[in-house]
Amino acid sequence: MLGNTIDFRRSLLRWYHTNRRDLPWRVARENPQTATPNPYHVLVSEAMLQQTQVATVIPYFNRFMAAYPTLRDLAKAKEQEILRLWQGLGYYSRARNLLATAKILVEENNGKIPSSLEALLKLPGIGRYTAGAIASLAFEKRAPILDGNVARVLSRLEGSTGCTSGASRESLWQRAEELLPKKRVGDFNSALMELGATICTPRAPRCPLCPVQKHCAALAAGVVDQIPPAPAPKIRPIERRITLAISKKDVGQECPTYLIEQRPPRGRWASMWQFITIEAADIPPTAQSLSERVGLSLSDVRHLGALQHDLTHRRYQFQVLSCRAKSSKNPLPKDRRWVGLDGLSDFPLPRPQLQVAQMISSIIRR
Ligand code: SF4
Prior knowledge:
By secondary structure, the protein is an alpha+beta fold. It has two domains: 5-145 and 172-195, Hypothetical protein, domain 2 (Endonuclease III, domain 1); 238-365, Alpha-Beta Complex (Nucleoside Triphosphate Pyrophosphohydrolase), CATH 3.90.79. The chain has helices at residues 5-19, 39-49, 54-67, 71-75, 79-86, 93-108, 117-121, 128-139, 148-158, 166-179, 185-198, 217-221, 287-294, 351-365; strands spanning 238-248, 257-262, 273-279, 298-311, 314-325, 336-339. Strands 1, 2, 3, 4, 5 and 6 form a six-stranded mixed β-sheet that branches. The longest helix is centred in the first third of the chain and has 16 residues, at 93-108. Residues 153, 156-157, 199-200, 205, 207, 210, 212-213, 216, 218-219, 224 line the site of iron/sulfur cluster.
């Protein structure tokens, strides 16, 4: 256990004061002890940081703030604009929840982000961790947080080699709460996360540099590398898809246009856009079978390449084919569009579809 909790808090906060990273959503380093960060910045950064590294989030956060400097600006945004800004960051339900939260707060709370855990937990996409982070970081409320970094740090400090789910997770939440100081709660929670992100890392933690090493039971027992225990290997079901770069070039057109479609409003990559994508069948695709499946007359089918996209519980494999569409007088359904490669930047595309666009453009340039 941590022995002297007061000494632990002091050591951690002193280290944080000198070593914390300057991040765009944090208060400027000059005056960290007398100011709290902008709650809107905390809300947006915490949404972006779920399952995502700080270095990846920084440019997204800066672009987002340039487009929507306040919660009221965000509440007026269109979902497609938000998805476009979020493009490549993944877990797009976070973006939709953020927009829904902004609208609710403007309509029902005078555009203010609430400070209590209770009120925060009622907002879309805000769970126990995010509510604790906003309440403590932005409002100095005595609320604990427990993300992957903090769970690992606390488990190592306690020398607990068990897993960090179920009942063990609940006891870590309790521990996170017991450790909270009366003042500088936001800094304390940030310091725990910072320690996990920069010193007490999942692999090869830098224990000689750790400000709380004298409180660490795992270090004393020589079991640091056993915490957390190695996860069981993941078996991801494979989903096979065919993505079609269907092009057409009308008379007088300099560059071809490609057919894209909007995904359904629910489910993975909801409402985002993609090249025409269908489930792979067991028989090799032909111009005739593809024409029937996509409802267009297609010719000149060629293999362009293959892509793999891994999600936490699923692996997608895309076979990418190019083909030409014969001209048709039939109007397009409203969820389909012909666009040039330059025009794709107006549409939010999931990462594998961006890779398809890159594949097409590199082939055109050859
Ligand atoms: S001593 Fe090592 S294992 Fe223990 S908290 Fe510090 S960095 Fe983590």
